[in-house]
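Deviations from the work plan: none for this task. Representative record:
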Amino acid sequence: MATPVRVGIVGSQFVASIHAESVLRYPGAALAAVASPTAQHAQSFAERFHVPHWSTDPLAMIQSPEIDVVIIASPNDTHAPLTLAAAQAGKHVICEKPLCLNLAEADAMISACHQANVKLMYAEELCFAPKYVRLKQLLDSGALGRPTLLKQSEKHDGPHAAHFYDVNRSGGGVSMDMGCHAIAFFRWLLNNQRITSVYSQMNTFVHGNQTWGDDNSLIVLEFEGGCVALAEESWTKLGGMDDRAEVHGTQGVAYADLLRGNSIETYSRTGYDYAVEKAGGTQGWSFTMYEETWNYGFPQEIAHFLECVRDDKTPLVTGEDGRAVLEALFAAYASAGQGRKISLPFNSQAKRPVDLWKPPEDELRLSS
Amino acid sequence: MATPVRVGIVGSQFVASIHAESVLRYPGAALAAVASPTAQHAQSFAERFHVPHWSTDPLAMIQSPEIDVVIIASPNDTHAPLTLAAAQAGKHVICEKPLCLNLAEADAMISACHQANVKLMYAEELCFAPKYVRLKQLLDSGALGRPTLLKQSEKHDGPHAAHFYDVNRSGGGVSMDMGCHAIAFFRWLLNNQRITSVYSQMNTFVHGNQTWGDDNSLIVLEFEGGCVALAEESWTKLGGMDDRAEVHGTQGVAYADLLRGNSIETYSRTGYDYAVEKAGGTQGWSFTMYEETWNYGFPQEIAHFLECVRDDKTPLVTGEDGRAVLEALFAAYASAGQGRKISLPFNSQAKRPVDLWKPPEDELRLSS
Amino acid sequence: MATPVRVGIVGSQFVASIHAESVLRYPGAALAAVASPTAQHAQSFAERFHVPHWSTDPLAMIQSPEIDVVIIASPNDTHAPLTLAAAQAGKHVICEKPLCLNLAEADAMISACHQANVKLMYAEELCFAPKYVRLKQLLDSGALGRPTLLKQSEKHDGPHAAHFYDVNRSGGGVSMDMGCHAIAFFRWLLNNQRITSVYSQMNTFVHGNQTWGDDNSLIVLEFEGGCVALAEESWTKLGGMDDRAEVHGTQGVAYADLLRGNSIETYSRTGYDYAVEKAGGTQGWSFTMYEETWNYGFPQEIAHFLECVRDDKTPLVTGEDGRAVLEALFAAYASAGQGRKISLPFNSQAKRPVDLWKPPEDELRLSS
Amino acid sequence: MATPVRVGIVGSQFVASIHAESVLRYPGAALAAVASPTAQHAQSFAERFHVPHWSTDPLAMIQSPEIDVVIIASPNDTHAPLTLAAAQAGKHVICEKPLCLNLAEADAMISACHQANVKLMYAEELCFAPKYVRLKQLLDSGALGRPTLLKQSEKHDGPHAAHFYDVNRSGGGVSMDMGCHAIAFFRWLLNNQRITSVYSQMNTFVHGNQTWGDDNSLIVLEFEGGCVALAEESWTKLGGMDDRAEVHGTQGVAYADLLRGNSIETYSRTGYDYAVEKAGGTQGWSFTMYEETWNYGFPQEIAHFLECVRDDKTPLVTGEDGRAVLEALFAAYASAGQGRKISLPFNSQAKRPVDLWKPPEDELRLSS
């Protein structure tokens, strides 16, 4: 396409804003529309990012001839219906993580997009984070030998929006929300090798009054080639967002700290505007970050996806990758529930991953 | 006792040397004897540390009226017989980790020392490492709130002495050799709370031609009070010894890196004598450590134990603690073998922990 | 201008390549031509960056109607003549640091560009380095109170190209080549406050057989508002490029390490392709950087300058800033030569800063 | 001496306490007496450390037959009179830094002790700090090649006791109080090579209402062998005590951070008892130190000195070293006052170093 790719965004909160900025930074695309349930949100979003059209009707936006690509940046339970609508309307899809709520939805999304000959792109930004890209290059180059242990971890003190805590909307807790990053990251580092088993330890330590879901987890994955991976996730860690990875191999090891490692170490008696996401405060010592969205790979991710649309190329991260992550998440929740390692493939028919950890009957019983 | 406590050491290698130096640093004790199977080793050890008596007969030394305390710094399979002999001879015992090979031995050791009214002290030096002592104080003071996740990790590229790799002598691989540190560390941080379950992922990634045992492991423990602990152990990590811990709580978090965090960051084109244990080399960049044994808490540990003997006080770390660690190790190996979480108590009657991971029949079969 | 800004580059080595890439990243500009003394260099540069025209005649290129802006990325002694030619031809100028060889040249360059109504932009990329931009924001916001001490330092083990070591071409050694960064950085942090005095300690520790210039320096500057600044420069530091800054104030302090602070900490037994500029090697431990040019602010700098040309705005860093830096450098060399603090203004008529440190007569005498 | 060395301490505040603890840790000595002007202080000090005798009369204590060694841990202006008294009474002296107020006093102290055949030991603990000891070993071993630049820095937000701010008692500000550490440290690293020149930049940024002295300084020293050294001192740095050094050489470089580098990185929402000296607060992020006095080398220093007394050996750091440091401090203050490098030797007859920066006449004039 010579003309700019026209992008419609569903959602108006945090990650939708990040994607809007990323689209604005990519010269070959333009923001065409935004849709969000609350009119106020949609309208101020449109003003803020100079989006020509806004509405509270995502489906109408998706069907509009004015857009070519839909970015789905809305709660997890909307991912499948919106993707199916987009495929039906012949629009390419960039879908935020996690892909959707269950494997049946995932299969339907992949199939529909395939039939409609549109791209289903899975928005895992860690595959584009410059520091992690360099880390993968180190591994690929043989600098570390054969990988034996991969680690990735994301920890902060919990999201704000209510839908994260409502497992009917989210499908699970922190493992669903952030463990998906780690699982995709491990698959990407190992060039999409198959996961053979998943073990998980899940707990609700602090947010039990807010959610049925897990707020801390450890997930151990075994890969086909023999490598082991460990994901650590937390919604209860104070002191600011923490995102880091390690790659251990037979010839070396590499430690990559995405935030605290990159920050300015600052002491301010008075405090100041902003240190890093979820910092909690800036008085005293803080770790001051900058260019966070670039650091995470968000603009690079969107630029890549839009380029794939323009040039009809295969995206780095697809719906199939999103499904593979979701499958591992179902196994993780099942493992936490049963206290044993779960082998893959694991084609669970459960509606939501969290149901395999704490059966929904319990939810009903305990809330009555 | 006003007169110095007289110490006999069984063993003449790495940790025996460290203990000898520690005894020398403690004014209220004196090195009286050393015993080691190889005459040469025992003799040069005696010369090096000015020990008046050396022999190749540990039992004779233990029975000698010239000693009050035995330090057992010899391979794992000798811990039980030597401790029983010491108890019989009315000598106090400082026993290196892991306590012994199995729970029957542990029970016999504890019982014999109790009967003989001698102290059975378990040499877990991490309980004395100054940085970790400060970390525990932080936790105890409430600075971090209620603990939710504890982490401890020790990684290097493998021990040298052959007995570590011979599971008949050692009882297991890296989990046995270094996982015991983490398990004791977690119990100590939580004031000896009960472990309720253990899950473990074990692998032999690199040393498979040398040993039947594990050379990498991840161990997840659940504690009675709800806290989760994660131990990471490795005999395949290059670049020098790495020892670190984290404490996550409801009000904070603390990261303690015992070695790399404390080191001098050095670049030397030519290289130099020594950076840190198992550094692998000193050319280019290295992390130069200093006062390593003090940093690990070895002299403080021995001073404490000898003081307990002098003043008839209860040691910080006892044979019961050593047994609790061993029990968790049996559960860890069983977990790795079965792919499921093992609940405690776990009074295994297996002869060696590794047998629960890979049955000894396999060992025989594969080596024929 | 709606049409792309057309850029001609003089130079074909390291920094010229960086600028070429930056121009390519900016959508509103295009690379039109490159000129370099050696035909081979100019030609392969043109091939590599898809530049339509190449030649060995910078003056012809400058006068070509096919370009709007000249980037001068050639040795220091060419900066003035090329800028005057550009002004005469009505072209805007982006001039690499240091501005030129002496204050007379600087005045001529500023005057000529002013007369010709073209912009003279001084390419100090540290004013665009994202981490340093955030650092300035911290200071500007009051987070650190009133600044008392600023520090900036750049150290590596020496440039490769011969012209750096030939003071006839360069004007000085490391202070001229890298001290200029720090001086500009301090002025920028303090919003172009006046420097009132300069003291400098200069040495030639290692490169004495290659150059008449300094290879290590400490430069102490006093600013009008009372703040003190300390620059440390070195061409003799092994282990890789090191670039860092500190801002101390009455309410706080901030430490910003641009490279080692941002890197992946890697151990590789075998080594690998590249860690960081001037790393020296990658075997063993290294600090692996990524996106270095972005990290330094190069593409952001060029984008800003080209935007200023497009939209006729005042650039952040101008020829006047470059002259102020040069004046401080003359004072620094004079200070090193006299062993005393030099007050500013210091309108030296010397031909090259290094002449105030070691009189050229000495150079002649010693080389005969 | 077989009997314990009996120690009398003059002083009862911070550093006197540290020395008392150090004496208690050394088995070959005993605390015999303490003297301090305020009876309350002397008495509670005696209670706290179980010192048999306390008084408000240092001279009487010094002359007592019950002591063998005097530790002078009282304000700077008392160092000379007390040392002379000690020498006259035939007592060995451990004198805190800086040695005294001026070179005449220094000469008298050295001469008196020499005549009386008693040791004059200069308490520069950085020569015993384990991390710095290792750093010197690295340099001595050739790992870093020939030294080109040494750096040492101590920064916090100012002492509490009033006498530090009274230049009549102290002789100067932060350069006198903490610059002496760096100067001694550099001499020690270079095996007591001669200092050939000193340049200094001094400022009073924050404490001008409290003191006539400097509260920030940069001191540049040239050494006979060609090495340059840079000391940075501050009484205005917030966020906790900071103590670090760097050694740059022709074959390498080493960075040693004594406190923040060794600390536990802690986030605590509530805060806790103590992070590090002068931390300012413990809520939010802090750098938790432990065993600070050991880390600084205080007990090792006292053990060394007392051993020298016992075994009649030459101490590592003597009164002559203290005099050399003081001479450099006089040169530093002169340099700051004149804005030029001062060559050594510099046998100033000024009464106090600060007088060479700001003549006392100004002090009188400005305070009238």
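The mean pLDDT of chain A is 94.
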